[in-house]
Amino acid sequence: DAGITQSPRHKVTETGTPVTLRCHQTENHRYMYWYRQDPGHGLRLIHYSYGVKDTDKGEVSDGYSVSRSKTEDFLLTLESATSSQTSVYFCAISLTSNEQFFGPGTRLTVL
Amino acid sequence: GESVGLHLPTLSVQEGDNSIINCAYSNSASDYFIWYKQESGKGPQFIIDIRSNMDKRQGQRVTVLLNKTVKHLSLQIAATQPGDSAVYFCAEGNDYKLSFGAGTTVTVRA
Q: CA-CA distances (angstroms) from residue B63 to B34, B40, B53?
């Protein structure tokens, strides 16, 4: 998976609890992305980063925040998890603005 | 070979046949287009890309065709193999971001 790891790989949590997912890369790529994947929706962009401390919203950013304090790590936080945020979350990295390489995914269940 | 004229969520292909997966995109200003393959339980894997100033690009056993007039993208897989069974996504790219289609599940029959 192109030097990308995601942690945890699986998580079950309860509604209202905070959750942080971590994406770590060893490729020194500039761009990092968080997507969610749900049946019938393909992959939808949550947030992305174009450099350290530089982030922007994607199409489904409500309820999520991100932080990138160093090149290799991109964190996705659900401040107060809801059942609608049950999904599979993928991190991706890109050296340029084109091809993105994806991590193995995190399956999150919010009860 | 087997193909879908419009985007359909599933495609069943006989092993050894050629398969064609179609995708309609929405943004006529998109700079590039990418096909990804996703196997069960894994992240999407890059297959091939094409820039908007091209209409055809070939890779190993795969060919991508771009028709900007009708905003249509297709992926052709030659001599489909059991390992080609997966979900295939097209994505259009613009401003460092990708927008993905809903995906087509390809099943290869032995």
A: 12, 23, 16
Distance (Å, whole) CA A29 – CA B73: 28
Query: Which residues of B are less than 8 Å from A103 in CB distance?
Result: 43
Neighbours of B1 (CB within 10 A): 14
B22 touches chain A (CB under 8 A): no
Confidence bin at B3 (pLDDT 50/70/90): very low
Interface A–B counts its CB contacts (< 8 A) at 50
Distance of CA A52 to the CA centre of its chain: 15
Distances (CA, A) of A107 to B6, B91, B96: 31, 22, 25
> CB distance B97–A58 less than 8 Å?
yes
Q: Do A98 and B95 touch (CB under 8 A)?
A: no
What is the overall mean pLDDT for chain A? 94
